[in-house]
Amino acid sequence: MGYLRWGIGFILFCITAAFLHYSLPDREIVKIVGTEVVRVEVERPDGSIVIQDQRQINGQNPNGRPSVFRNEDTDWSWPPYLKFDSANLQAQAQSAESQNGGESPWMVVRHYGWRIPYLSMFPNALSIRPADGPDEKLVPWLNIILIALLTLIVLIVWRMLHILFDRHVAPVIDGIDVEIEQTSNAVSNRYRGIRGWLRRLFGG
Length: 204
Hints:
single chain, alpha+beta
């Protein structure tokens, strides 16, 4: 039973970690080397497939690795970033690309989501700002604060549930255990009494 409990807890922890890793914002320092609009297939909630335009921002990391971001409005959906200015962000990216005679400065792209090439998934860019340089230190203070608050809430809820269990559920379980034990003892005593009576009756 203990292994099952730990297994379920581990699975829930992995699901929560993956959910937070996808939803919480991240930042990346890149040079914007291009912007484009591509046609992609999008699956609707009813299962149908539609073709629509998707704005993309192409970047290059200081180590030379490419980074591609989609640029879509989040509207009122999850995650709740309330992004409605994807067109303005695309224009900002195009302006950064054409600065300094075509040599783009280092930019900090704030985004969320995952890059999975086999599924053609791209992180969604939320904002762009100039970076101090390719070595600028980006500390995820917002994520640290949110995870700390979430952990605190989980610990408080866990403690409250533990107290409620000890006060209301545990006594009921203990009472049931006592009744079961008393019933078992009564049945055992009755069985021993009947067995002794049969022995005396038949001379066993």
